[in-house]
Amino acid sequence: MKIGKFCIWFVLIISVLLVVACGGLRFSQLDTDATDYHPRKVAVFPVSVGSYEEARNPVEKIVPAELAAKKWFTSVIDTASLNSQIQSNDELRQLVTDYISKLNTLNYSDPELSGKISQLIDADAFLFVTVEEWRYTVEKEKNYANASIGVKLIDPATGKIMWRAAHNKRERYMLVKSDMSRIARSVIIDLINKMPH
């Protein structure tokens, strides 16, 4: 009798631990200095979409809206506002081009460039978003909607990548395709909830 109860409790505990373990992000890496990093003004840079161009508009609207909804920051510079500043300022446009080029090709966040950009746009945090997957697939005759998004939070004063993370969700559907924007919003909310602030 005691062995039976032990087995039941053991199975219950393992089940709970598996559910809790599945509740996190797919990937998350925090810099050691991130615990002391509390930015007030965050700028959301243009989203990197690769071949998923249809993801650009929804993601560039969802990310700033969800950041603003948290009320963690005194200011959230959305992508449209940042793009407007970049287009109207030649110096800023060149700095951003050079900075993003180094970030993407060398994975190097140049503190000199980020510091200058920070002063010009008045932000003490940069958020870079990458759409890793945004598509519908069929696997074993089952239909799925797949959204995967990665983020980098950068301290422009030091150039440090304070936090990087990635998360994905897939949803099975039958006849009507799932709304990718809704799935992406859920992914983004999960990411933002883990973001240092």
Quickly describe the structure.
The protein is an alpha/beta fold and 197 residues long.
Describe the structure.
The chain is an alpha/beta fold and 197 residues long. It contains six helices and six strands, in the order αββαβαααβββα. Strands 1-6-5-4-2-3 form a six-stranded mixed β-sheet, sandwiched between helices. The chain is globular. About 7% of the residues have low confidence.
Computed CA radius of gyration, to the nearest angstrom:
20 Å
Number of strands: 6
- Provide the β-strand percentage band: 25-35%
* Residue share in helix: 40-55%
The helix tally amounts to 6
Shape: globular
Give the CA-CA distance, first to last residue.
51 Å
Q: State the major sheet.
A: 6 strands, mixed
> Structural class, from secondary structure content?
alpha/beta
Mean pLDDT: 90
Which spans of ≥5 residues are poorly predicted at pLDDT below 50?
10-22
The SSE string, one letter per element, is HEEHEHHHEEEH
Question: Order of strands across the biggest sheet?
Answer: 1-6-5-4-2-3
Features:
197 residues; alpha/beta; six-stranded mixed sheet; 6 helices; 6 strands; 27% strand; globular
